[in-house]
C-alpha cells in the first residue's frame, strides 16, 4: 500500500512545479516560511524543511534580511 509523501515534499514539489512551469520566474519573491506554513496548514518546521529542499535543488536563493527568491536557472 503506497504511503502519502511527507508534507514538506508536497510543498517543495508544488513550488518546483510552479517554477518549472514559469508561474514563478527567476527573481520572484516567495512567501515567508510563516505564510507557507499558514497556507499549507503545516508547522513552521515543515515549511522550513520544504524551503530547505528547494534550496538544495538550487531552485531558490535566500537573501538575509530581504527574503527568499526564485534562483536564476543554472547554466549546466
UniProtKB/TrEMBL annotation:
Q: Does this entry carry the keyword Plastid?
A: no
Mind telling me which Pfam families this protein's record contains?
A: GntR
A molecular function (GO) held by this record is:
DNA binding
InterPro entries of this UniProt entry? Bact_HTH_transcr_reg (IPR050679), Tscrpt_reg_HTH_GntR (IPR000524), WH-like_DNA-bd_sf (IPR036388), WH_DNA-bd_sf (IPR036390)
Q: Which GO biological-process labels does this protein carry?
A: negative regulation of DNA-templated transcription
HTH gntR-type domain location: 5-73
Signal peptide residues on this chain, from the entry's feature table: none
Cite the CDD domains for this sequence.
WHTH_GntR
Keywords, A to Z, come to: DNA-binding, Transcription, Transcription regulation
* The protein, known as: Regulatory protein, gntR family
Amino acid at each position: 500500500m503506497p504511503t502519502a509523501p511527507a508534507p514538506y515534499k508536497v510543498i517543495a514539489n508544488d513550488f518546483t512545479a510552479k517554477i518549472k512551469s514559469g508561474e514563478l520566474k527567476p527573481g520572484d519573491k516567495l512567501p515567508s516560511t510563516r505564510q507557507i506554513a499558514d497556507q499549507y496548514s503545516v508547522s513552521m518546521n515543515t515549511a522550513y524543511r520544504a524551503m530547505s529542499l528547494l534550496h538544495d535543488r538550487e531552485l531558490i536563493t535566500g537573501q538575509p534580511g530581504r527574503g527568499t527568491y526564485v534562483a536564476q536557472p543554472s547554466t549546466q
